[in-house]
Amino acid sequence: MTGEVLIVTGTGTGVGKTVVTAALAARALARGRRVAVLKPAQTGVAEREPGDAAEAARLAGPVTARELARYPAPLAPATAARLAGLPPVRPAEVAKAAIDLAAGHDLVLVEGAGGLLVRFDESGGTLADAAALLAAPVVVVTTAGLGTLNDAALTAEALRARGLHCHGLIIGSWPAAPDLASRCNLTDLPAVTGAPLLARIPAGAAALPPPAFRDRAPDWLTALPTRGTGG
């Protein structure tokens, strides 16, 4: 494996993992790096509809977008695979695909489904297991407001329990007019997780025209180091 692999997980579903993945990819592309986006299990999308990897590529620019499996039901991958009568994705397959992509790219972003411990298969394999096989750092995408502290703390605790490195937190949708809880969470999120808050992606970023998204993404991620997250 030559390139860097970074795992993008979330505190749950709908927290902004895809837009964060796209922003990380756009930042790396702006620095002249070759980028791949890997979506191990795409659920809830019809056969010919664009999935999360394609959406990240639309926003970020010329990345290699790859899915390992696609299941129509909007459910956890293990459940969606079972209902569809299709083979599940297993952590070893995710790790192998990431290693293969890393051989020809400087950065491979692996975007999970839902949260860290959502099951890929009937044996209980998760994105955390794939991260362990890859010895890859993990970025946790979280929400801004009330309720995020518990979710983020639990995710960080699960990472530590597995010996995985939480590279930091990114708020996937930062409101234009943040409420009191959101403002307080800028201090409290690092305190309860022991991980730095790396960035806040503005709400509605995915609706920007792709050229504007690519132009602004590096500024959203200025707190990230130049190495370790695709810089």
Please describe what this structure looks like.
- By secondary structure, the protein is α/β, with parallel strands linked by helices.
- The chain has helices spanning 17-30, 52-60, 77-84, 91-102, 127-134, 148-161, 180-193, 210-220; strands spanning 4-10, 35-43, 64-71, 107-111, 138-142, 166-174, 197-202.
- The chain has a 7-stranded parallel beta sheet, with helices on both faces.
- The longest helix is centred in the N-terminal third of the chain and has 14 residues, at 17-30.
- The chain is globular and about 45 Å long.
Outline the fold blueprint:
Layout: E1 4-10, H1 17-30, E2 35-43, H2 52-60, E3 64-71, H3 77-84, H4 91-102, E4 107-111, H5 127-134, E5 138-142, H6 148-161, E6 166-174, H7 180-193, E7 197-202, H8 210-220
Parallel strand pairs: 1-4, 1-5, 2-3, 2-4, 5-6, 6-7
N/C terminus separation: 18 Å
Main beta sheet: 7 strands, parallel
Number of helices: 8
Low-confidence spans: pLDDT under 50, at least 5 residues? Answer: none
Mean pLDDT: 94
Strand order of the largest sheet: 3-2-4-1-5-6-7
User: Helix coverage percent of residues?
Assistant: 25-40%
* Rg (C-alpha, Å): 16 Å
H/E element string? EHEHEHHEHEHEHEH
Beta fraction = 15-25%
Secondary structure class reads alpha/beta
Number of strands: 7
Q: What would the principal axes of the Cα set say about the shape? A: globular
